[in-house]
Amino acid sequence: MNDHAHFMNKALEQAAQALFLxxxxxxxxxVIVNSADQIIGQGFTQQAGGPHAEVMALxxxxxxxxxxxxxxxxxxxxxxxxxxxxxxxxxxxVAAGIGKxxxxxxxxxxxxxxxxxxxxxxxxxxVEVSPGAAESRxxxxxxxxxxxxxxxxxxMKAASSLDGVTALHNGQSQWITSxxxxxxxxxxxxxxxxxxxxxxxxxxxxPRMNVRxxxxxxxxxxxxxxxxLDMPLDAHVLKAPSGCLxxxxxxxxxxxxxxxxxxxxxxxxPNAAGKVDLTSMLRELAQRGTNELHVEAGFxxxxxxIREGLVDEFLFYQAPKLLGTGAMGIANFGPLEQLGEGVQxxxxxxxxxxxxxxxxxxxxxxxxx
Length: 369
What we know:
The chain is of the alpha/beta class. A hairpin with a 2-residue loop joins strand 13 and strand 14. The protein has eleven helices and 14 strands.
């Protein structure tokens, strides 16, 4: 008898290979198992517009000369049932003669949402639910966020000393943490759909905000909060291969047109206070297919995002040093009057990266969707 947990773990291993690849589509893996409990095909979702995990597994089986008739397909997310840039995966499974589909959980996409499983059942395919739902949801937490909440999963990254200093009084900040920590941070950038920063960081550091030192099939899009359109025309972020989005309150065409000529997309999105409407910005980013938004900004934008309750998770790197009174910390919000007013976090992971600590901490209750 097939061991559902074992084979679903194998499918999850396949799904993890789509970490840097499949966005804005979910990271999905599939393994096909015959009656002798042998894996005869496996695959994971490719880049947007490319084959999904089920089709990749069917192709793998065919390339190896394996017959999939009556076999069981283990899939980490419900097979899609709609025509997008590719055809419905449930139809491909039926056409191939798959006898059973074991899925980890239902697809939250309203275009699917149980219809894939129902379509398989209607075609005579046995459908079962297997362990692996929590792991699949975690791997696709940004996709679930976009589908259920209509906003990306917002992860804020910050590097500091153990006493919370992110820069000295003179602004010097490179580098507080180690090369190993910086390399690890690029991996977190790579899994994001969009990287967000503020104009203050652009003016101060002129960062590239791209993924470096890592073999990744795509570069995330760059987004900048720039209320007054102070963006220099020679800023590195304007050269991002995936494009640069600039969220602003300005309608100054003499500033907008040169930026557009360089390929930037300028989006007018003010709130009542004359600042960029950050909540609306997140919804707009979701409409552009952003599952995970990776924030690397200064203490002002960080503070605004925290104050408005828009951050879901924090990625902290802490160097084993004390830097005393600094010009800035991680975020500018508060002052608070009561300890209970603080942002309550749940530690997800604490690891040593080179000489530094990496802490992944989630806002309490934020993943309950």
